[in-house]
Predict the 3D structure of the following.
Amino acid sequence: MFTGLVETTGKLVARTPRGPGARFRIATELGPLVLGESVAVQGACLTVQTIVEGGFEADVSSETLKRTTLGSLPLGGRVNLERAMPLGGRMGGHIVTGHVDGTIRVRDKRPVGETTFVAFDLPPALARFVAEKGSVTIDGVSLTVNGCRDDGFDIVLVPHTAQVTTLGDLTIGSEHNLEVDLVARYVARLLGKDGSADDALLEKLKSSGFLG
């Protein structure tokens, strides 16, 4: 489990095909690392396969290559990195699994004072999991939804986030990894695909302030 607070960035320095997947070599000062531990790379949970001088290697499955932007990441491309949160560690962002739900594209980007307003297009299948003032993870970064629509949502980047993560490099039309909020995913599951739900569950959600 992760929190969406990026520790540092790294660079993809090598990608070696392995069957339908690939092995990535990431250059980074992140550490000390342990063989077999989990690291979120641009929001995707990968396992440290080999520790090398100046970084580590991890195997990336064909599913991950297809579902995320890692398959199109160029050599030399920067990636956000976060090690799994230790038990009892500080939860600075929100609960992040490192399981990317899909990719989104930047629709608009403009400065607002010292911050940056960014609007994203959102696939219809994921729209119900995104709510105003809720949490999303973009390229491994925990962010608060500023506003949302049926076909998109927007966030506001503070200077620190833009400086220490790859989100400072966002451009209109660029593609990014999205993980929706884990709690939203389970609530949607409990409510049922057809919108039906147990009356007691609905009442509990309403009394807790999750439903109007």
Observations:
- The chain has a mean pLDDT of 90.
- The helical segments are 62-67, 159-164, 182-191, 199-207.
- The longest strand covers residues 8-18.
- The chain has four helices and 13 strands.
